[in-house]
What we know:
Layout: E1 3-6, E2 9-12, E3 15-19, H1 23-35, E4 39-43, H2 46-55, E5 60-64, H3 72-81, E6 90-94, H4 99-108, E7 112-115, H5 120-131, H6 137-141
Parallel strand pairs: 3-4, 3-5, 5-6, 6-7
Antiparallel strand pairs: 1-2
Amino acid sequence: MSKTLLRGELLLSKKILIVEDSFDLRELLGSGLASLGWDPILAESGRESLAKLECETPSIILMDKSLGDMNGFELAAVLKRHPVYKRIPILGTTAFPGCLVRQHCLAAGCDDFISKPFGFAALHRRLTQLVYGERSSTTAAAGL
């Protein structure tokens, strides 16, 4: 995780890897989060996200469950086994509703989950909680 010192305070980078196979949604998330102060890195597949991670280390990953080349939750499990990437929080997302999807997401290694559709305020709040080490109420309730 990239860190910066400003006036004696340690600040975490707001670099975010957005892994989303839908071009329109990926672009919308990138521009919307950029307007909220995030520095987006965009990837449309699991393979592309792994390639991007070799070049840049984000503070957090926003990952869709359904990707073109692999299941996003499978990718989360791979990342959580990696010696460097395992420290990067992952916020899983999908349009499939239900508590089973949430459980699969958390079991795969995602640190939290947000269901589509979501608003930018809720997404920003959840991302900030994960980057700054605050556990969300859903993660705490799940005992994780």
